[in-house]
Design brief:
single chain; mainly alpha; two-stranded antiparallel ribbon; 2 strands; about 60% helix; about 10% strand
């Protein structure tokens, strides 16, 4: 279950952060204001990003560490590492 949620963050992108309207202005909810399910997904979004970053060679990490969304991060890493064992393994080569 938990591993699946982490994988979904990588495949589908992060939680679309809930927002509220106050005085005609739309603002994002605070972490303490989101539902338990949304909080779990937000936590797994962060875990997915951290897992990806931890497995990178230093030279790749330096290029991508400023990205905070797991899905975007993974797509950039795949482009940077085309032709390496990472992309060959994914393609089933």
């Amino acid at each position: 279950q938990h591993g699946r949620m982490i994988l979904e963050s990588v495949e589908n992108g992060p939680l679309i952060w809930p927002s509220i309207e106050e005085n005609g202005v739309i603002i994002p909810k605070k972490y303490s204001e989101i539902s338990a399910t949304e909080a779990i997904q937000a936590d797994y979004d962060v875990k997915a990003t951290n897992i990806i970053l931890q497995g990178l060679p230093p030279e790749v990490y330096a290029l991508v560490s400023n990205h905070k969304v797991a899905k975007e991060l993974w797509e950039i890493i795949q482009l940077l590492m085309q032709g390496t064992s990472l992309t060959k393994q994914k393609k089933g080569v």
